[in-house]
Amino acid sequence: MASLQRSFNCDKICDVMEENNNVIELRDISVVFREKPVLEQISMDIRTGSFLAIIGPNGSGKTTLLRVILGLIRPSSGTVKVYGKPPGSLGEEKHKLGYVPQLLEVDLKFPLTVEEAVLMGRYGRIGLGRRPGPKDLEISAIMMERVGIAHLKKRAISRLSGGQLQRVLLARALANEPELLILDEPTSGVDQTTTFNLYEMLKELHREKITILMVSHDVGVVASFVDAVACLNRKLVVHGKPSEVLRSEELEQMYGCEAVFFHHGRIPHMVVEDLR
Amino acid sequence: MDILQYTFMQRALIAGAIVGALCAIIGVYVVLRGMSFVGAGIAHASFGGVALGFLLGINPIITAVFFCIATALGIGAISRKGDIKEDTAVGIFFSATMALGILFIGLFKGYSVDLFGYLFGSILAVTQFDLVMTAVVGVLVLLIIAALYKEFMFISFDQETATIVGIPVVTLYYLLLAIIALVIVVSIKVVGIILVSALIIIPAATAFQIAEDFRLMMILSTVFGVISSIGGLFLSYALNTASGATIVLLATAIFFITAAVSPRKRRKRYEPPENGDYAPSCLCQDESDGEEGSSKKGTPQHETVQCTHKHQD
Which residues of A touch B150 (CB under 8 A)? Predict the structure, then answer.
């Protein structure tokens, strides 16, 4: 239990970093849906420049936690701060956010070209009632180029493959010129090559000092890319460097993250051995 | 074209063109957001407003404007706040406002043939006042939609991301409802309360079958809307049929013709790759709202997920 406590406080990573450069601060977050606890007592700091994956089995509350951070759900108790402010009342800080929703949630029937979809990423910055200017078009063109979809810009989103659509969503998030990129299950519904390419792109963005937070059930692959893993199962089970988290006893014993591990890991054993 | 010499016909045609375009434009949002029933509900609510106008001796269009906007906002408020779904909220308002209308008509001592004009639409019924009103509302609605074009598109496509980047999603939702109400009210003289929602939904649905980008859907919907209303008015004159019904049936005919010749069937899921970019893999959807949290220790491998290969060759 002592070691678990240590993991909660995440002193391992936190110590290395300086004070007060948290992008996200969660304090005792609990969420209750219809008298059923979904999240209990989550406290966590996410530092500027980190690349964190929140993992956990189905129903562990990962997506709920993400929605709390994004200000889409108000927690039943506890406080959330994003850039030092509650997520519902971000001012200019809103423009520091880039959000990539789940691929399976995208309305593919919506008549929209790649170009139009990516430009949407600028809308928050452009402001109400204004039209996109040359700068906006330029930035979305750069982002399309960057993720490798520039040649598809006139294509309807309904005609894209899963991997292409995912790059569209990433380009849209990047068009907002974010400092914090948040991704919800970016690997569900896509094949391994796409997953790998996405992680490579994220790694590159991370090198450019973008803070990345993603929710994933893809424990195995995720471990080799991110620099911190938080394992969630209603409570925060462990939080730390991937190598520690994935080997930890707590993970094994307490909340069954190993189930995720087996169930989604197409190459999990390999990865774990690498880490050792 | 001797029919154009009649003032009533000129007025009806101008009003018809404006109304056809307006309904078609807001129809794009209504269809894409899945708000068809909201449109029908607000349209029927206008009956209560019209009846109130008769009762109070005020121009029914004026009372209908307030009545419909109030209903639209009420539907929005109830479906946003409580546990009640939008369609249920519509169902409640729909019947309650119709009932109020019937009550008002009962209280109204005079005699009114006009009421049928409002219910079913009548080209003879379009007055100078109606025309001015239609034009004013038309300009207003077009200005709002032109100004907030990108925001309305964003909230229709991806409300969540729009919220996150700071688009005032809730305010825009109410504004959209108010616009729908306004457009419906100015349209009832031409197509009638009962059929007005068809003029909103059908041209947009027709355009939806063809268009692959948002702008094109807007343009095509408008074209189909105007063709339907102008063409329908001429047909109704020529065949001596009810104008609203003729317009709606013409729009429906265009819809089915388009459906028959439309080259493309929309898909809901990803297709296999054209160029090897995508190979279908497991679609393990994660539902994280607190269902099956605990795992069974000991038998993890075979237990958990049978990935379903949604693989269409």
Answer: 120, 123, 126, 131-132
Which residue does chain A place closest to B204, by CA atoms? A111
DSSP 8-state symbol, A71 = T
> Is B146's Cβ below 8 Å from some Cβ in A?
no
Under an 8 A CB cutoff, do A109 and B268 touch? yes
* pLDDT for res A11: 44
pLDDT at A276 over 70: no
Helix axes B214-239, B243-261, angle to 10 degrees: 130
Please list, in sequence order, all residues whose beta carbon lies within 8 angstroms of the beta carbon of residue B61, skipping any fewer than 6 positions away.
B50, B53, B129, B130, B133, B185, B186, B188, B189
Mean pLDDT taken over chain A: 78
- Min CA distance, B221 vs chain A (Å)? 13
Going along chain B from its start, the domains and CATH numbers come out as 2-261 (1.10.3470.10)
- Does B82 reach chain A within 8 Å, measured CB to CB? no
Q: How many CA atoms lie within 13 A of A41 on its CB side?
A: 4
User: Which amino acid, residue A104?
Assistant: L
What interface predicted TM-score (ipTM) does this complex get?
0.81
Mean pLDDT of A45-73: 86
By three-state DSSP, how is residue A97 classified? strand
In this prediction, residue A220 has a pLDDT band, given cuts at 50, 70 and 90, of low
CA–CA dist A181, A72 (Å, integer): 16
For chain B, the residue count is: 313
A172-209 confidence digits (pLDDT tens): 999 999 999 999 988 777 788 888 888 889 989 999 88
Q: Which residues pair with A22 in a beta bridge?
A: A47
- The pLDDT tens digits of the residues spanning A66-82 come to 989 998 888 888 888 88
Superfamily of domain A2-102+179-275: P-loop containing nucleotide triphosphate hydrolases (3.40.50.300)
Measured between CA atoms, the residue of chain A closest to residue B269 is A108
pTM of the model: 0.81
Structural domain boundaries of chain A?
2-102+179-275
Q: How far apart are CA A13 and CA A241, in angstroms?
A: 7
Nearest Cα to A196, choosing from A218, A169, A229, A174? Answer: A218
CA distances from A69 to A6, A231, B143 (A): 23, 16, 36
Task: List alpha helices for B192-269, DSSP H.
Answer: 196-210, 214-239, 243-261
